[in-house]
Amino acid sequence: MQEWPHRKRNAWGAPNIGIYNHQGAGPQAIDRPMSRTRSIRTLLIAVLLGVNLLAVVASAYWLNQSQQQYTQRAESNTRNIASAVERNVSSSVGKIDFALTHLVDDIELQLARGHGLDASGAHDIFENFHGRLPEIEGLRLANERGQVVLGNGVDSSKPVSIADRDYFVALRQSDGHPLWITKPVWGRLVQHDIIIFARRFNRPDGAFAGVVFATVSLDYFQQLLARFDLGPGATVILRDQDLGLIARNPPLTDQPVGQVGNRLVSPEFQAVFASGVDAGSFYTPLSPERQEGVFAFQRVSNAPMLINVGLGSSDYLAGWREERNKTYAGAAAFIVVTLALGLLLWRMLAITTQEALRNRVYLRNASDGIQITDTSGRLVEANDSLCAMLGYTRQELLGLDQRLWLACWPERTARNAILLQTSLDSEPRSIETTLLGKAGQRVDVEVRCSHFYLSGKLHLHASIRDIGERRANAEKIERLAFYDPLTNLPNRRLMLERLNRALVGCGRHQHHCALMLIDLDNFKVLNDTLGHGVGDQLLVEVATRLQSCIRLGDTAARMGGDEFVVILEELDESALAASQAEGVAEKIRLLLRQPYRLNLAAGTQTGGLREYKCTSSIGLTLFNDQSVSTDELFRRSDTAMYQAKAAGRNTVRFFDPAMQAAVDARAALEDDLRHAVANNQLMLYYQPQVDAHDRILGAEVLLRWRHPQRGMVMPGEFIPLSEDTGLILPIGAWVLETACAQLKAWAAREDCQHLTISVNVSARQFRQSDFVEQVLSIVLATGANPHRLKLELTESLMVNNLEETVNKMEALNDQGIAFSLDDFGTGYSSLSYLQRLPLKQLKIDQSFVRDLLVDSKDAAIAQTVINLAQNLGLAVIAEGVETQAQRDFLERLGCQAYQGYFFGRPGPLQDFEKLLFAEAL
Ligand SMILES: Nc1nc2c(ncn2[C@@H]2O[C@H](COP(=O)(O)O[C@H]3[C@@H](O)[C@H](n4cnc5c(=O)[nH]c(N)nc54)O[C@@H]3COP(=O)(O)O)[C@@H](O)[C@H]2O)c(=O)[nH]1
């Protein structure tokens, strides 16, 4: 597969329209947007995953850092608090110790004076200290025997001894005056847990004299710790040096770990404590109080105590958790948004891909050519149809240099409008033009173009439709509508348009015009004898000749059949116009009578080229204003043409009123003829037909019209008219009925029984589909002997539909009816049909008989016909025999039957019968 050189992406989407290969575009080319889309989708998924993963990792990192910061801050806080608590505790211890030391000094001073202990003075001092130091619950003095003798709350009536107390025992045995601080002990006087701070005092000789001791309620420590309210999850604990619980805030009296003396601590605490450091921090996932958090540990500097401050993670991480939740929410929102964006992109990509795919399919299957050009007219895109239209491959078309590409658009206006965008319509527009292909072929196209912006640059899109076929069809339709398909001459419709145009033109410019009606003489005979194919050849040749006789601007048209029309325009303004028109008409007449070479193979079984002569009758009328209608003009030229016919054909006639009279007469004759049968105006004349011994064999019945005003009208005047109008059918039927009735009448008479009657049957009569039935029913109805009936047919009947003709003749022949071939030799005589027809007789036409004696050709024809008849086993009769000499000559030629004035003119029945009886006499 080759790539298109101008391949690039465009603004419609990933795949560029029209980017596929002319030669090799197949499923792969179609799938290209799909594979590209797959890559983009993979990239999209990777980017989405990457971005989200990054967001998650960053969030986690940030949260971790934040948590550490919160934890560190909590550790720092706990240390600070522990330190503050320690300062408070050590301060209290210091104050207590100060009081004890002062008391010891004072007591020892009193003892040193030798006056003994001033009980009331000591009592005042005790009270004084006790009042000033809220830490101290009780300040007392015990003698060397351990009896508490002085101090607040001491009742001499209820002696109390501390001789068994550790601190008493220890101090009694100690050297110096160390401060003794007990663990929490049960206060014997106060009846609750206390801590005792004690110092010994000596006699002047240094012997043990007793102890002063201060009791501090654990509540004091509890209240001291309570000052450090750090939150619900925070704990501040004061322990003794064996980790026994002294006080804690918040109190936890309902749990073992909250009981005074409880030594349960976390392993982490245990470890820090065991390390011997004075202060430290640690993290405990699970403290004895089932709490997770950071803890600080601090030894009290002047007492065997230690402070333990803890912050629950629920407290110190509350802010962090809030941030964490926000971060989670932000990350979730980010993921959702990016996923939504990704999904949107995915769908857009899918839509774009589908559109691109659809565009490709549309383009690929578009029957129209499609192109995109830039503002310089340069071809940017083109589809297969355009390439095929112009005969280029895609590479060639897109590789054309500008000059060659513009050359494909030979029409300047279209080129400027479509390629160079001389005007930019907002609406798409259509232009019809012609393209020039690679091989120089011209392609008629309709271009529909519109402009658009691609990457901000103006481009022009053109859809190009090959309208060659449409144009050809339109022309074809126009030709069918306005032209005669056989001759390609304008038909009646177009001719009428031209005639109207000529009428308007001559009215405006005062020149003359002429309307010429041309009818071919005896064309019907040609058509009937040689067939329509041959007739068509003649018509085509006539059309060609007509066109050669007229000028550009004149019109030669075919009206139908053998009728042609010529319109001559812009003839002279004066009477000269008549001679101009006549000159053209004469030229036409002369040219049309020139021999035609017709191919008989087109219409007959025999074939071969044959020379044929045909003349024409031309009727002509002039006009130079619009006062006459086209109908009137036709009527006039028609009249003139009939006059030309009447004048012996092969003639040009101008219209004149006399002509019109003839036409009117013909119309009147037709009108009269319609009533002739009903009015009993028809009658039959009988002309004898004789044998070689001049005996009457029978008669040919010849129609006569006895008109009340016109007198006797000969068949030559009305038979052609009756054939043209179809009146021959009822007339023919009447003739046959009358003839058969006469046969029936003769059958009853012995002297007439042998007589035959010949009846002329016209082609139109014979062609009736029920002709056989008609004849047989007449024969049956009249009771005539069919063996006495002879039907005379003309040669023209034999040419077309020979099969049908034979069938009908045989059907009648089977019933005894005989056939005679009339006017033999004048038409197209063919041996082949003669052999097939069930004929009884050939009739030598009178035109050969007339000059028989002087014209050797006629004699030869007569001889030929006689020989032919003999050879075919047919009888032969000569008509038009007017003289003895003719009769004798014919006899010598072998003719054995005759008809003609020499034997009897056609006459009424009575005349015929008289002749018959005269012969009998
Ligand atoms: N379809 C029908 N056609 C008919 C009928 N009756 C007559 N015709 C046809 O009319 C044509 C003219 O007929 P007509 O004027 O009667 O002429 C016939 C004879 O009078 C004439 N004839 C006979 N003998 C002579 C002669 O010695 N000299 C001479 N100059 N004329 C002669 O020939 C005509 C007979 O022709 P044909 O029929 O060919 O034998 C004519 O063509 C009739 O066919 C009818 O009822 N139906």
From TrEMBL:
The GGDEF domain, residue ranges: 511-657
Provide the GO biological process annotations.
Answer: cellular response to nitric oxide
Reply yes or no: does the keyword GTP-binding apply. no
Superkingdom of origin: Bacteria
Residue span, EAL domain: 666-920
- Catalysed reaction, written as an equation: 3',3'-c-di-GMP + H2O = 5'-phosphoguanylyl(3'->5')guanosine + H(+)
Q: Name any one GO molecular function.
A: cyclic-guanylate-specific phosphodiesterase activity
Q: Which InterPro entries match?
A: Biofilm_reg_signaling, EAL_dom, EAL_sf, GGDEF_dom, Nucleotide_cyclase, PAS, PAS-like_dom_sf, Rev_trsase/Diguanyl_cyclase
Transmembrane stretches in the record are: 42-63, 328-350
Residue span, PAS domain: 353-399
Q: Which UniProt keywords are listed?
A: Membrane, Transmembrane, Transmembrane helix
Name the PANTHER family for this protein: BIOFILM ARCHITECTURE MAINTENANCE PROTEIN MBAA, DIGUANYLATE CYCLASE DGCP
Q: What is this protein called?
A: GGDEF domain-containing protein
Question: Organism source for this protein?
Answer: Rhodoferax lacus
